[in-house]
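thread: overnight batch results

M.L. [08:02]
morning all. the overnight job finished for the chain we discussed friday. pasting input first so we're all looking at the same thing
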Amino acid sequence: MTTDSSLRSGPGTTGRSSGDGEGGAAHGRLPGREHLPALAPDPAAGPGTPVLDVVVPVHNEEKDLRPCVVRLHGHLARTFPYPFRITVADNASTDATPAVAAALAAELPGVRSVRLEEKGRGRALRTVWAASDAPVLAYMDVDLSTDLNALLPLVAPLISGHSDLAIGSRLTRSSRVVRGPKREFVSRAYNLILRSSLAAGFSDAQCGFKAIRREVAERLLPMVEDSGWFFDTELLVLAERAGLRIHEVPVDWIDDPDSTVHIVRTAAEDLKGVWRVGRALAVGALPLDRLARPFGDDPRDRALTGVERGLARQLIGFCVVGALSTLFYLALYSLFRLGVGPQFANGGALLVSAVANTAANRRLTFGVRGRGGAVRHQAQGLVVFAVGLALTSGSLAALGAATGSPSHTTELAVLITANLAATVLRFLLLRAWVFPTGARRAPAPEDLR
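M.L. [08:03]
and the structure it wrote out:
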């Protein structure tokens, strides 16, 4: 219900103790997500602290601001089961927008206005979000192109503790969108660029309908450089790269024909932002480790019954030995091929490399020491070798039948493919039959030297 000018100094003025600001929690790890308490508004206690703060960033929107805020306020008052606040973030308007925002703040409970002296939607969101005391922060465009029925589904995963960010998407199959072909093409082309250049997994970066948990915003906002339209994209890309969970909500969306967004200029700035963020990610210039593994009790950290803890080390050892064995096998095959046909060269190369592979896996992968059982292990290893021989010989025979006289390069390509196909079966046989758990021991520290 107030007009707030205390935020003009920027995001450093948070209105909270320094322990919650960038110098404290922003440099620590995120706590585990928890369901926010079901706080019902108490008329006798006043408005209190809102659970949701919806920011409406505006610049010269004197015509659309009042209908937007009145409609949004009425919708939240009817449907939202938690205390809420609507913050009009006026960034450097030169028309009557500040006066309209002040009148709305005086008229409607839970509405406030904030005045910034510089333009930029990203700057407005950063400033208001950094100063808000609400645990869930959201924003939407003043034109209300998005159906408000999607607002509760947008913020519900953040309130429940399921997700860290939530975005509305106009590009999912169940979204219903009405807009011109030019904007449709630009939007899809931009998201295609994000997927191909930054490996983005979210579907719609530009929809003006997003929400974030406050503790995530406190740590993520200092990493976001853009203050304009690319702010959303940069926020989402960094969040996704840090492993945060992003929830997508299909929306019903009707294009605003009177939108003041300059498509060409905005697209050019967005492409510059894509290049800047991509370069920063490539060189590791962003401290995303501050947001790493933020989920508290991560199920991936729990001990699993029935799964041997040495499995990961065995897989790594088997892959290393397998790669070296494959190179050894190919070298032997090329050498033997100088004097004999492909089948004899393949058999000889496989036999020699199989003996070396079994010995290396016995010691390095499965940690079997000493000479006990070595002969039996080699004999069983030869059975595994027979499997590889059948696969590779069969592949060579099929190649010869198909092409007559294939080139040496083609033969090598077929053999590599056949060996890769046999790798998984070879590992399972070695682990379950040749070197079962009871026949091996974990390597002692001195064995690893």
